[in-house]
Amino acid sequence: MPRKFSQHIVHVDKAIDFMASTQAFLEYLNKQGNPNALAHDIPPEYADFFAQRLAWYRKLYRPDPVNEKQSVSEKENGAG
């Protein structure tokens, strides 16, 4: 039975997104990780996409300390 060509298509954008997510999570855990080392594995046309996703995931894993303190004080005051 012949296989469909679409089964073999690599979804580069999902792989790049996963790489960015993994890098940000490693940074969050204070584990080794170097986004510059990943640059060799990323096609040049996806470099901006990787940078954008990495910034988004970094923000996700490292929330703004001001908002974090506000959330804690809101919970202490019964607002959350």
Helix content: 55-70%
Distance, first to last CA: 58 Å
Number of helices: 4
- Averaging pLDDT over every residue, what do you get? 74
Low-confidence stretches: 5-9, 71-75
Q: Tell me about the largest β-sheet.
A: none
Shape: globular
**Structural class category:** mainly alpha
Question: What characteristics describe this protein?
Answer:
mainly alpha; 80 residues; 4 helices
Give a structural overview.
This protein is mostly helical. 60% of the residues lie in helices and 0% in strands. The longest helix is centred in the first third of the chain and has 17 residues, at 12-28. The protein is globular, with a radius of gyration of 18 Å. The N and C termini lie far apart (58 Å). Mean pLDDT is 74; it is low at 5-9 and 71-75.
Short summary of the structure?
The chain has 80 residues and is mainly α.
Q: What are the SSEs and their pairings?
A:
Elements: H1 12-28, H2 35-38, H3 47-61, H4 65-76
